[in-house]
Every structure is written in structure tokens, then in C-alpha cells.
Amino acid sequence: MENATLTIQLEFNGSKGEELAKMPQNSLEVQVITILLALVICGVGIAGNIMVVLVVLRTKHMMTPTNCYLVSLAFADLIVLLAAGLPNISEVVASWVYGYAGCLCITYLQYLGINVSSCSITAFTVERYIAICHSIKAQFICTVSRAKKIIACVWIFTSLYCIMWFFLVDTNETVYADGVVVRCGYRVSRNLYMPIYFLDFTLFYVIPLVVATVLYGLIARILFMSPLPTNPNDRVGTDSIHQGRSNSTVKVSCKSNKGAMTSRKQVTKMLAVVVVLFALLWMPYRTLVVVNSLMDPPYLNTWFLLFCRMCIYMNSAINPIIYNLMSQKFRAAFKKLCKCKQQHAEKVTKYNVPVYYSVMKDSSHESPEHDDTEQEDMNSYPVTSKKVNFTEKCGETGAMFSIA
After folding, report:
1. Are strands 388-392 and 249-252 parallel, antiparallel or unpaired?
2. Fewer Cβ atoms within 10 A, N terminus or C terminus of the chain?
3. What angle do CA 346, 351, 357 make, to 5 degrees?
């Protein structure tokens, strides 16, 4: 990644011309702290991101446009942790042990994970803006199928963009009195790589943060500083749900409408926290790259380099923790996955899901993919914790339906 790889490359180039009697080695203190932190952060991050992918892909009501982008982000974070965090553990105590092919592939995967995570954050920021500030258009724009197409385009674009790293890195050997040190480093002079680093800095850090700042400012103005605009055509969490015949209308209570508004705020806050942490945790490394491009020799303090690397690993590991703390829906899904309560889930499904999906399917005459957009606003509520009553006023019996 731009973290451990760049650090090694800078250190290698800084010492390339020097004649050293003995092979340079990190102190025991640096080795122990690096290994412990990397193991803990990467272990938590890998487990957490795998859980995010599983709960979204295995739970039908979790498959929303926003959660699709979170799955893409989780996959990208997994690549960062596996391709950058784990190799750093072996490098801190030895030289490069993955060979020439490993140097090319690991460097490629590091940049791929970084860039995809940045693009995924930008994508769900734009999706949140459309869903809240243009709620009518969101019924047709913010759908699961469209989200999947956007994610596919993001991965294809970044995969092609990062191919250049196959031609920019190589393994380098330095001979010392007591052995040979192999490093995965630059193929040519470091100065020639500065335009590429500044391009990455602009495309995958500055632009996403500028876009996020502007859009979340507009979202805050609509969502927190003024009443949430209601759409008469909305069917879940708004004024009405059309069920069965055109003459039959099921109205949701005002309490449910207020709950949908609260849920939107919670989801938006959670995603805003993800963006803020992305900005803060990537800032040390991005700043270091800019400063070192202007300094000769570059700043290579061992502890600051370790801090930069751990911040990047932390950024890839912390998102599942944020989802668990700020989303009741994710928290319930994580608990269910950990406890493996599959039988209990099946019993709940038998009694409750048919009513829910009968309403959703019958109402699909207006917009086939509208359900995918609206379900995201229910993400902050566990499925079994709250009941919403629907009253069929057109019927003579005044039948009452309940969704647990």
C-alpha cells in the first residue's frame, strides 16, 4: 500500500548509496510494537469486514443501496489489511520474502484497496445526498441494481488505473558485510514518482473530501435544520402504502413516519462519521508524502512512520465497529451472526415476513425498484424489536395488520 511499501522504498532509496558494514535492523522495541499492533488491528478489521459482507449478503432486508456500497468498502478494506498489514509483520523482522511476483501483486492490491475504498465512500455520499435532498428522484435513481452497476464500474476503473504499478516497482538487493537485504522498491528514481503520488492525492483524497464536505453540508441543511420533505408517493415510513386493489389504502401511523425520519438521521450520521475518520486517519500519511516530496532528504522518523501505517490499518478496521455502535440494524445482525441463531430467525420469518412482503410486492405497481430505496431508512431498527400497525380503512371489518 502507500504505507508500508512507500516507507520501505523511501528507506531503501535513502540508504542506497551508503556503504554499511552491517545489515540495518529495526530495534526490538519497534519490532514488538509493530507486530502486536498490526496483529490486533488487522485481526479485528478482517473479522469485522467479513461480518459486514456476510450480514448484508445473507439478510434480504439488509440489501439496500447504501449497504451495497458498504460491502464494496468492506471488500476494499479487507484487501488493504491483507496486502499491507500482514506483509508488514514479516518485513519488520526480515527483508522482503515474497519475491518479484509478490512485490508486483502486493503493491497492486494495496493501491487497489485504497482507491476502491475512497471511491466507495464518495459513492455512498452521493447516494445519501440524492436519497435525502431529492427524495422523488431517489425512487428511480437510488436502487440496488444501479448501486451494483456503479460498484462494478468503480472496481473496473480502479483495477485498470492501478495496473501502472506492475511497471513501476521492482525488487532491489543491497549487499552488506553480513548478508544481502531484499526490498520491494522503486524501479527508477523516487522523484519520477511524485506526479503519480500527487495524482492519487488529488483523485482519491482531496476530491472525495471536498465532495463529502459540500454534500453533507446540503444534507444537514435539509435533514437537521428544516423539516424532512415528505413525498406523497412514498409508501414505507411515510403517509400511505397502497395494497392490493387500487381502491385499498393502508395508512402508516405518524409514529412510524417520525421513526423513518429518525432512522434517516442515524444512517446519515453513521456515514458522516465514516467519512470523517477516513479524512483524519489518512491525513498523517498523505501529509508525509507531500512534505517528503519537497524535502531532501525526506523525513523518515521510525516512530512517525509506524504511526502513519497504524492509522491506515485502523481506517480499514474501524468501520465495522462504527456500524455496530451507530446502527441498531447492523448491531442486531452482528449478534445474530455471532450467536448463530438460525432456527430462531426462521421462526420469526414464518410469522412476520409474509405480511411485510405482501405489502411491498402489492405496492410495486408504482415503481418496481422503489422498495430497495426505501428499506435503507429502516436500517436503524432491529426487525423483531418494534411493531407497526396498519389499518385498512376501506374494509368493513377494520382489519389490523402487524409487522414485528
Report:
1. antiparallel
2. C
3. 95
In the sheet where 249-252 sits, what is the strand order?
240-242, 249-252, 388-392, 400-403
- What phi, psi does 154 have (nearest 5°)? -60, -45
Average pLDDT over residues 309-329: 94
As a whole number of angstroms, the distance between CA 42 and CA 55 comes to 20
- DSSP codes joined into one string, 184-212: EEESS-GGGGHHHHHHHHIIIIIHHHHHH
Other beta carbons within 10 Å of 83: 23
Mean pLDDT for 313-331 is: 93
Angle between helices 254-294 and 194-201 (to 10 degrees): 160
**Residue 26: φ, ψ to 5°:** -70, 150
Residue with cell 439478510: 59
How far apart CA 61 and CA 380 sit, in angstroms, is 12
CATH no. for residue 280? Answer: 1.20.1070.10
Give the per-residue pLDDT at 45: 96
CB 282 within 8 A of CB 315: yes
Cα separation, 20 vs 323, in Å, equals 49
pLDDT digits (tens, 9 = 90+) for 202-228: 999 999 999 999 999 999 888 777 554
Backbone phi, then psi, for 223, in 5-degree steps?
-85, -35
Element (H, E) at 320: helix 302-326
Burial of 156 (0-12, 13-18, 19+ CB in 10 A): exposed
Instruction: Give the closest residue to 116 by CA, choosing from 154, 164, 71, 79.
Output: 154
| Inter-residue contact 363 to 310 (CB < 8 Å) | no
Total of domains in the chain: 1
pLDDT recorded at residue 119: 96
Band the pLDDT of 284: cuts 50, 70, 90. Answer: very high
Q: What is the pLDDT of residue 346?
A: 53
Domain that holds residue 244: 4-403
